[in-house]
Specification:
Blueprint lengths: L10 H4 L4 E9 L4 H14 L3 E8 L7 E9 L14 E4 L18 E6 L13 E7 L1 H8 L6 H12 L4 H9 L5 H16 L2 E4 L2
Parallel strand pairs: 1-4, 4-5, 5-6
Antiparallel strand pairs: 1-3, 2-3, 6-7
Helix pairs in contact: 2-5, 3-6, 4-6, 5-6
Length: about 200
């Protein structure tokens, strides 16, 4: 299976190992942990190594939840929580009011945010070089009639990062056992998240 190309996976051709550490922030009931598992499966479909790490936080509905994921072109042995991510995906527009989602973020990172705000309305840290913005809640209300944003934000991540394709995300989704109308809704949600994400490259 062909591997991803481009600057984000430069190590695949240079001989240097490339490991990305991803932290996903959301709230209980939004599918934060499921999103990490789908994304891990997508990376495997891309021919890479990936491991999803158990969530950290209270999983009661509405409470802040984090999930962790490592991916790369070499075998991954670390299973600890991620304290210095180079990629942050926030699938909830409000969780950053109570949680420092940027804590420990590495320089030149990627931030993918569920929000209806424009770039100029956000306080973007100096560690962020690529910013992906998606009105995931608005899309979710149209697709699901409720604010479940995880599959939408996976599409947004694919658009902002270039690390996975829609096809492999959809294969990862199918592997979760979602069927029938729910599957079709989520497949469409991934496509809309990808199509309706605005990407900013910050200098």
């Amino acid at each position: 299976m062909p591997r991803p190309q481009g600057a984000r996976w430069a190590g695949l051709t240079s001989g240097e190992a490339v490991i990305h550490e991803i932290r996903i922030h959301g709230r209980g009931g939004q599918g934060t942990v499921i999103a990490s598992k789908i994304l891990a499966k997508a990376f495997v479909e891309e021919g890479l190594y990936a491991t999803a790490i158990p969530s950290f936080g209270f999983e009661r509905r509405g409470a802040p939840v984090s999930a962790f994921l490592r991916c790369g072109d070499t075998e991954i042995r670390a299973v600890t929580n991620i304290y210095h991510p180079d990629i942050i995906i926030c699938i909830d527009p409000t969780v950053s009011r109570t949680v420092d989602i940027f804590r420990g973020m590495q320089p030149n990172g990627i931030w993918v945010q569920a929000t209806s705000k424009d770039r100029d309305e956000l306080d973007v840290p100096e560690t962020v070089r690529t910013l992906g913005l998606c009105d995931a809640v608005g899309i979710a209300r149209q697709v699901f009639d409720r604010p479940i944003t995880n599959s939408i934000m996976l599409g947004a991540f694919a658009r902002a990062s270039g690390l996975v394709s829609i096809d492999t995300l959809q294969e990862g989704l199918r592997s979760t056992g979602v069927r029938d109308a729910g599957l079709e809704q989520n497949l469409r949600a991934i496509e809309r998240g990808y199509a309706e994400t605005t990407v900013h490259h910050i200098t």
